Amino acid sequence: MKQRIVTGVIAAVIFIAFLVIGHLPFELFTCVMAIIAYYELIAMAKIKQNSIQAILGALAVILVVLNAEVQKVFSYDLVTLFIALALILLIVTVFSRNTFSYDKASFVLFSALYIGFSFMLLSQVRVEQSLLLLLFILVVIWSTDSGAYFIGRQWGKHKLAPHISPNKTIEGMIGGIISALIISGIFQLVANFDDPYTPFKLIVMTLLIAIFGPIGDLAESALKRHYDVKDSGKLLPGHGGVLDRVDSWIFVLPVLYLFQLI
């Protein structure tokens, strides 16, 4: 427990420092996090990190996360980028002598798209929108997790997804939603949001975060269970890997994007 607390505090201090600084330092820090999360993900599928296919996926992640900066040097379209990556990965399957299958090619493509796009949104919200908005999103995610944990431990009886995560309960998820709404309300009272982030829109965002955040966590749990992996990595002692810490964020941010809220 002591190791978990120490690691959590150090990681939080580093993250908050870059979050406050913003601009290019935060973009680069986000890119480093994305690369680590990407390699943790493909390692689950036992794809060699130094293979050409893994490196191509990592390059795609960098080009997506640092899209705003790279576009200043040369222009490219993200859809075209992933079409090119898909075709190149298929070419690799042809010449790999059956060591790199279609399944693994699909996994690399999915990993690069999911990780790259999610972390790009994390960076863009901070750099192109506001620190306040990103703090709101993160605080609501953390309050959802905390509420679900404490309510679930105290009153949880009905399992939410026992085949994936036996500790999560329906009562815990409801507690997480209530906790998120309370913290969201307090946050709005002390913060000054500009248009178009009206109280109604922020409540909608809160509900989406509180519902889809736990689903993102369960999605990663399902992936780890499929590949028989306990933690995504060992970078954060007591916590696992980067992916274990950001599984809710990287699911919530695309959801908010799809609803045109970020």
TrEMBL record:
Its EC number is 2.7.7.41. It catalyses: a 1,2-diacyl-sn-glycero-3-phosphate + CTP + H(+) = a CDP-1,2-diacyl-sn-glycerol + diphosphate. Its main location: membrane. One of its GO terms (molecular function) is phosphatidate cytidylyltransferase activity. One of its GO terms (biological process) is CDP-diacylglycerol biosynthetic process. The chain crosses the membrane at residues 6-39, 51-68, 74-95, 107-125, 131-151, 172-191, 197-215. The keyword Ion transport does not apply. It is a multi-pass membrane protein. Pathway: Lipid metabolism; Phospholipid metabolism; CDP-diacylglycerol biosynthesis; CDP-diacylglycerol from sn-glycerol 3-phosphate: step 3/3. Keywords: Cell membrane, Lipid biosynthesis, Lipid metabolism, Membrane, Nucleotidyltransferase, Phospholipid biosynthesis, Phospholipid metabolism, Transferase, Transmembrane, Transmembrane helix. It is found in: Cell membrane. InterPro entries: PC_trans. Pfam families: CTP_transf_1 (PF01148). GO terms for cellular component: plasma membrane. Belongs to the CDS family. This is Phosphatidate cytidylyltransferase. The gene is cdsA.
